[in-house]
Amino acid sequence: MEKRTIEQLIKKIRRVPIETEFIHLFLSISNRKDRAKVQNIRTMTLTDAANWLEEKLTRQKVEDWFIRVDVVTHDQEYSYQEIRKRLSLVPRNNYFRQGIAFDRKFKHAFLAEELMGSALLKPSLEHKVGFNAPNLDFNDKNITNYMVRKYGESLTKKISQRKFYVFDTQGFYLERGQWLELSLFPQQEGLRELDARTLPNRVDQSIRHGEQFLNAQLKKDGQFIYGYYPTYDYELSGYNSVRHFSSIYALLEAQEYLGLEEELKKTEKGLQWGLANLTLLKDNALYIKEETKRGISLKLGAQALAILAIAKFQTVTGNTKYEGVINQLILGMERHFVSPEGDTTHILNEELGTKKKFNIIYYDGEAVFSILRAYAITKNDRHLALAKKLFDRFVEKKYEKYHDHWLSYATNELLLYIEDKKYYEFGLKNAFENLRFIEHRDTAYPTMLELLMAAIKMTDRLQQTSLIKEKALTDYVSKEDFWALKQVAVKRVENELTKGVMYPELAMFMKRPSKIVNGFYTRHDKFRMRIDDQEHFLSGLVNYYDYFYREVDKE
């Protein structure tokens, strides 16, 4: 490493307010292929620590390597009982964002990123993601294995007999020859800082990187790698027809946003793979099938997302060669998924009989949204009538109580063709009656941003119509409410970018950094990186950037 790069870092370190008696420094280096090797030192003076760091970095090649330095700024002593109590109060898995030393001299000490990246803390056996608290505790097996890898030895003293030191750090990450000062803000700790000034560029970068990551999951034959648990580089098994086509749709959205043409060819292979391997043709109607342990399943959601992906492909490319497939898929919906009254059946068996009347609320919103997107292409009045029949049934059943993002998309789409007060009321309730929960949700939860962006576009349209003067609507929302919708959308984007992007300064602590860097993840579910995680992040961010910044770009 060049001397000026090292000097730049040491100058930054000297400005860090350190409250500890000794200086503790961590140096983490990854060759991109493997988990970072982490070294730490304890010195009396900052000069001694700087000399150690300079010696280490002088010998280090920096080309394509992930390099990070952390300085301990504060520590606090805990007994075994006290630290277990502290861990048990953490609200979600992987939300503990401090390091832990197993002794006063930091002979055995782990950064927060090491704790998360090697699963040194574990939730209880009773923990169910999204339903109850994790009740975190030490993962003794993983701690022993990681300690041997890092220090070449395991603990000689029982963990229950030790004192622990929970510590905070100021981190620095080397990117393109410059040291990024990592954030100290709550829930941003250890990641690159995000603020109003950097937000537009960060959204754009995340879309670009997210598209590259999801594109890389498409194999040569057009099937996706379904996903990973990155801590162990565990590849998820099974496959899901809904998520296959929804991920194709999101890729097309991102590629349209980015103006990518060559990448569209690879995405079309994904579309072709789905149509070749996941379809069933009966009496000129087409159905999307999925192999399960209980036999073939034909899912309404898969039917819908296939229509949506094909319609998006035609819109982006202008190529009409799949339009006949759209008609066949909608015909299958009409015949067996939607009753004459507008009620839906969610899963059929191979003989087109009912396998499961209701599976998940998403399917209904996906169905009507996809039909409306298809109608924009086919201009078949029967398709619009089918969508209206479905939506009227949802209004009758008060489906706004589900606050589903697909229903928000569908509302916005239906209003392009039928401006009816009841649809606006439905859309407003779908968004506003859950706005407080959306604003304060502490996870990335990317579907919330999707819902908000559709609702914002709908309220913009509403304000241009005479319906805004209707008492039923003005009593329900005000101009301040419309503004609040946009403010919450900004907050959700900030939440996604600080809790859902696998930046290199975090990826380097996972087992195979190069495979997962810059993708999107679900932090509290073992950093899960499934194709539908990528899909929802991409769709929301693309819609957000298009609405808030694209017009500025054109000026």
Task: Name its key features.
alpha+beta, single chain, 555 residues, five-stranded antiparallel beta sheet, 17 strands
Outline:
This protein is an alpha+beta fold and 555 residues long. It is built from 22 helices and 17 strands. Strands 1, 2, 3, 4, 5, 8 and 9 form a seven-stranded antiparallel beta sheet that branches. A five-stranded antiparallel beta sheet has the order 12-13-14-15-16. Strands 11-10-17 form a three-stranded antiparallel beta sheet.
How would you characterize the overall build of this protein?
This protein is an alpha+beta fold and 555 residues long. The chain contains 22 helices and 17 strands. The strands form four sheets. Strands 1, 2, 3, 4, 5, 8 and 9 form a seven-stranded antiparallel β-sheet that branches. α11 packs parallel to α13 and α16 packs antiparallel against α18. The mean pLDDT is 95.
Distance, first to last CA: 42 Å
Specify the helix fraction band.
40-55%
Largest sheet: 7 strands, antiparallel
Contiguous uncertain segments of 5+ residues: none
The total of helices stands at 22
Count of individual beta strands: 17
How are the SSEs placed, and which strands pair?
Blueprint lengths: L2 H12 L8 E8 L6 E7 L2 H13 L7 E13 L1 H9 L10 E3 L7 E2 L1 H6 L3 E2 L14 E2 L1 H12 L12 E12 L2 E4 L17 H18 L10 E3 L4 E2 L5 H18 L3 H16 L1 E4 L2 E8 L2 E5 H18 L5 H15 L9 E2 L5 E3 L5 H17 L2 H16 L8 H10 L6 H12 L2 H6 L6 H16 L8 H4 L4 H21 L4 H4 L5 H4 L12 E2 H18 L1 H5 L1
Helix pairs in contact: 1-2, 6-7, 6-21, 7-8, 7-9, 7-21, 8-9, 9-10, 9-11, 10-11, 11-12, 11-13, 13-14, 13-16, 14-16, 16-18, 16-21
